[in-house]
Design a protein that fits this description.
Order of helices and strands: EEHHEEEHEHEE
Number of helices: 4
Strand content: 35-45%
Distance between the termini: 26 Å
Structural class: alpha+beta
Length: 169
C-alpha cells in the first residue's frame, strides 16, 4: 500500500519502536478513546506491558504510524484461542486504510496461530471507532452500561468480537 510516494510496511514491533509507540499511545488514548488517558511512566514500564513482537506496526519510511496490539486476554489455557486487541493510528495517517491493513494482518496472523476469536473493548463515546470495527467485521457481543464516568458523563463499555474462519469458508 502506498500513501502518496511512500510505501506502508506492516511488521512486528521491535525494541527500537518503543519510544515512538509510547508517543503514539500518549497522543491517541484520551478521554474519548479510553477510560483514562494512557501515560507510560518509563520505557521499562512500557516494554514490560508491550514487549517487542506484541504488536504489528505500520511503518511509512522510518515513521511508525500505527499499531495493533494483541495478546491472550487471560493466562488460562482454556482462553488461549482468543486474542484481545487494541489499535492506534496516528491522526495524520487516519482514513488512509492503515487500520484496515493492520486488522487484516492480525486476522491472518491469528488464523496461522490457530486462534478462533478476536475481541476488543470500545467506549460508546467513540462512535467513529465503533463504526470502524463494524466495517472490519466485528460485532457487538455485550455492553457494560454506564461502566465509566468520563469527562462528566457516563459511557458504556462495548465488547466486540470477530470470529475467525478459514479464508476458504
Amino acid at each position: 500500500m502506498s500513501i502518496g510516494q511512500h510505501t506502508v510496511t506492516i511488521r512486528f514491533s521491535e525494541l527500537k519502536d518503543a519510544a515512538r509507540l509510547m508517543e503514539l499511545d500518549n497522543l491517541v488514548w484520551d478521554k474519548n478513546t479510553a477510560p483514562e488517558p494512557l501515560q507510560w511512566d518509563s520505557r521499562d514500564q512500557y516494554l514490560l506491558h508491550c514487549p517487542p513482537g506484541a504488536q504489528l506496526v505500520a511503518v511509512v519510511g522510518d515513521e511508525v504510524c500505527g499499531y495493533v496490539g494483541f495478546r491472550p486476554p487471560t493466562g488460562l489455557e482454556s482462553n488461549l484461542h482468543v486474542y484481545e486487541l487494541n489499535i492506534a493510528i496516528h491522526p495524520s495517517y487516519r482514513r488512509q486504510g492503515i487500520g484496515l491493513r493492520l486488522i487484516g494482518a492480525l486476522k491472518d496472523l491469528a488464523r496461522l496461530e490457530g486462534k478462533r476469536k478476536l475481541r476488543l473493548r470500545v467506549l460508546s463515546c467513540n462512535p467513529g471507532a465503533v463504526a470502524f470495527y463494524k466495517a472490519c467485521g466485528f460485532r457487538e457481543e455485550g455492553r457494560l452500561v454506564q461502566e465509566f464516568f468520563v469527562d462528566g458523563r457516563y459511557v458504556d463499555d462495548i465488547l466486540m468480537s470477530y470470529f475467525l474462519r478459514d479464508k476458504t469458508v
